[in-house]
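Incident review: delayed structure delivery

Summary: a single-chain prediction request sat in the queue longer than the usual turnaround. Root cause was a stuck worker, restarted by the on-call engineer. No data loss occurred. The affected request and its eventual output are reproduced below so the record is complete for anyone auditing the incident later.

Affected input:
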Amino acid sequence: MGEQTEFKPGAKAPNSGTYIEIGENDFHMGITNPKQIQLEQGEKFPETTNKDRKWTKKGND
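Output delivered after worker restart:
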């Protein structure tokens, strides 16, 4: 079983770093100006722009 890579609002951040909002169509079209946040380990993820989006760790962080 691998490490979780997508997180719902209210979940706790597993590691400190920058997280970016992803959505159901981001693989095909991308999200224009996705919301980005900086969290410390254990902090809770805030609400996303809409219910179909989640948070993931930003690459090269």
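Verification: The chain is about 0% helix and 25% strand.
Action items: add queue-age alerting; document worker restart procedure.
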